[in-house]
Amino acid sequence: MAAFTLAHLSDPHLPPLPAPTLRELAGKRALGYLNWMRNRRKVHRREVLDALVSDMQAQTPDHVAVTGDLVNLALEAEFAPSAKWLESVGMPDRVTLIPGNHDAYVRATQHRFAEVWKDYLGGDEASGGVMFPSLRRRGPLALIGLSSAVPTPPLMATGRLGRDQLDALERMLAGLPAEQVFRVLLIHHPLRSDSRTKRLTDSSELLALLKRHGVELILHGHDHVHSTIWIDGPAGKIPAIGVPSASAVAHGHYPAAAYNLFSIAREGAAWRCEQTVRSIDDALRVRQIRQTRLI
Fold this sequence. Notes:
Layout: E1 4-9, H1 28-43, H2 46-58, E2 63-66, H3 76-89, E3 95-97, H4 112-116, H5 118-121, E4 134-138, E5 141-145, H6 163-174, E6 182-186, H7 203-213, E7 217-220, E8 227-233, E9 236-242, E10 258-267, E11 270-280, E12 286-293
Parallel strand pairs: 1-2, 2-3, 5-6, 6-7, 7-9
Antiparallel strand pairs: 1-10, 4-5, 8-9, 10-11, 11-12
Helix pairs in contact: 6-7
């Protein structure tokens, strides 16, 4: 079987930020806007994002996974440009998206991402509205999308799946092991975090579920750093991989924008999965910085 290549990028935080109205700056958005003007607009650069996506497309992956935070304050004016950016990355059959906490930043527009990006979010058999978990079959992969995107109070960036989504995920995973599929779980928040303000609040329930049923690979964003942790599955450890923001310049302890490529193939009765990390430098050149066999 020829290897299937899955690209993964996250947290583009699409710049520039449209000018908000005074009414939109009420509540949590006021602090977010202040943070953008003082700090984040210097970090998230459109030329960085464009260079990274161009390099990714030159690698001709079979599919692209984007794990959330396309927008910044979930302003109404952010959603149309984000849809155009998604189209520039690829068509919905070639790109799978899940939302991040910034995409559901406030209650007033928490529904907008599902309306504007529905063709990229929905599962293969979705009818009507977008439902999570979603399931997409691409080549040997079963791409399982979760939504941890919920509005939160000021200074909080936590995520939550909820009982209904966890129960549906358990039923979905229980029906997949008999098939010859490589299961990839997509979630915005990492499954383990030391931060009270940025964690997945029901991560213990998800970890217990994955220990019972397992997947082959977990991809996430949110922390804006390179990350690999191993969690318990029913037959061994599962790699959970995080990636930096796709639009960021290096700053403080945060690395420059990067994306991952995963080469996945069946070898006899087992899977092989190799990770290649490509990152941008100060001259906007994207180069391979690491290659690792995960499975």
